[in-house]
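Residues determine shape. Next comes a sample protein:
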Amino acid sequence: MDKIRFMTLGRHIYEQERKYPEATGELSDLLHDLSLAAKVISLEVNKAGLVDILGFTGDHNVHGENVKKLDVFAHEMMIKAMDHGGHLCVMASEEDEDIIHIPEAFNIGKYVLLFDPLDGSSNIDANVSIGTIFSIYRRVSPDNGPGTMEDCLQPGKNQVAAGYIIYGSSTIFVYTAGNGVHGFTLDPSFGEFILSHKNIKTPKKGNIYSINEGNYLYWHPGLKKYIKWLQEEDKESERPYSSRYIGSMVSDIHRNMLYGGIFMYPADSRSPHGKLRLMYECNPMAFIIEQAGGRASDGITRMLEIQPKTLHQKTPIFIGCEEDVLMVEKFMREYDVLKVE
């Protein structure tokens, strides 16, 4: 194993920036602000069992889901950390129905931030790993005014950076700016993210599958056949696969990216459009996994090619090792061909 030299997140961001003479430093500043928000949220998550912060607020978010107190804290902290830097023109959050306007004195920045403040929050009270997911785009509206909905509704292929922060046994900040995927672990003794996972590459094929098998009855028949195929014994194709499902998307994908595997949250007969959000969860995770050498799709279309129509659009997702995603696409495609015939 190569020895990783002592490298903080801040130093890494600025070293990457120096490779591009045209860089202005604004994206680096954005990532630095995000790391600050991550530290504050991490601190609150880690002490959540000691203060009156766990449990529901009694409110519902735009999706009709119960809102946890930590969701609210993380949402507000992200906004406070990001809306006065002068680098953003608009933001959007999974917890907010509309776009989030930047204060007038700071709203002419050239970047757009979309985020899920606390992914996997249904697991908060069970002390399961949860995370923050973010996505950064360049604005497409005129640069002499506030950002618009058009700035937010861009296909994932337009992302300039994306990342996630996992709050678990340790806090890990993983990001890509289009030049590989790098992970940094928070050292709480002096409050810095230190490079721990340099240039992450996911295997071409894994041996883990992650899906909520309780929904099997409602799945596409091709997906049912694929899951049964994964469970068959065949030494040549290294089956059966192991089933590992946390129920926190960011944690499942992080594990599978490191060890090799596929995460699936399909559409089904009850949720024909899927349940995960394209803009806040699927696009940023797809950008990251592609940069690590993997693949992400909705079962038919490359995830990053999908043109969003609404801010809170939902989608199915199949994401992970390239060969595994291609295989599930093949099963679903072949079944549909047989059905048509």
Summary: Residues 9-197 form a domain with the Fructose-1,6-Bisphosphatase; Chain A, domain 1 fold (CATH 3.30.540.10). The mean pLDDT is 90. The first helix runs from residue 9 to 17.
